[in-house]
Amino acid sequence: MAGGVERLLGAADRFQQARPFLAVPVAVVKKFGDDQAGKHAALLAYYGFLCLFPLLLVFATLLAYTLGHDPRLQEQLIDAAVAQFPVLGTQIEGSIKAIEGSGLGLVVGVLGTLWGGLGIAQSAQDAMNALWAIPRRSRPGFWWRLARGLGFLVLLAGGVVVAAVLAQLAKIGPGPGAALAVAGSLLLNLVLLAVMFQVLSGRWVAWRRLLPGAALGAVGWSVLQTLGVYVLDRQLEQANLIYGVFAVVIVLLSWLYLSAQMLLYAAELNVVLARRLWPRSLFQPPLTGPDRRVLAALAEAEERRPEETVEVRFSTDADR
Q1: 72 Cβ partners below 8 Å, 6+ apart?
Q2: Rg for the chain (alpha carbons), in Å?
């Protein structure tokens, strides 16, 4: 009985290895686990939660100063920006609007954004360096990491602003404006993700190597936003009955964690395709060539000093 199950599993493993349309997704999922990317996603969700509200606060306050003569347009842009995060709900939106225009709110928002934003930027750089298996001794130093982090925050803030404008175009109604807004939103997400992957990685990567993951992430982000409105908002209504005021925090953190996982899966796709890390074996032994390269890179990435060298050797069945 056990032998029959093993033969069946082995046949399924050989089947997926022989077909790239199965082998690539399997390799992406396996590498996600090898890199312990779930832990990186949790950190990204935590720091994202810390910087999200201050970022929106800064956005609302700056709008109050620049568009004080047009409250209607100001409110529309705030609504469009909040809509990028469908879990926020009217309570959070009202809180942001209530303190807009305040100089103290701007100061608090900027400081909060920098604190949480630099945290998410540093965590994102650690995640990308881990995914690309860049040795620790070769990763950027403190000041270069700080510059990359600030650049990441500028991209993030700019993306929220442009997305809000595109959302306003979509509300014009069916026709060229709506179609242009949808296409522009996908293109914006594609460009932003490609640039972010480049900025956050400790080594230069050819742009063509970043496009597959950026495309996957752009589509995934659009799907998450759509599902967020329908599914997560309904879950929030149910959670309010049980958790009360903590429901927003719980559901928002869950949504941010899901978004971070989607981002890291998209980045893993780039690594797998760029380094041809497929097919992977589901049941070892034996290890495939890509299995060995992934495991060797994980060990070599722990080199911390220039004089330190990590060598990896694999024993064969004959050696045991």
Answers
A1: none
A2: 23
Q: Is the pLDDT of residue 180 over 80?
A: no
User: In which region does residue 197 sit, left (phi positive, over 0), alpha (psi from -120 to 50) or beta (all else)?
Assistant: alpha
- The packing angle between helices 289-300 and 20-34, to 10°, is 20
Q: 260 in helix, strand or coil?
A: helix
Instruction: Give the global pTM.
Output: 0.82
Q: Is 1 helix (H, G, I), strand (E, B) or coil?
A: coil
Residues 268 and 131: beta-carbon distance below 8 Å: yes
| Distance, CA of 120 to CA of 114 (rounded, Å) | 10
Asked if 196 and 263 count as a contact pair (C-beta separation under 8 A), the reply is no
Q: Largest Cα–Cα distance of the chain, in whole Å?
A: 80
Lowest mean pLDDT among 51-55, 121-125, 275-279: 51-55
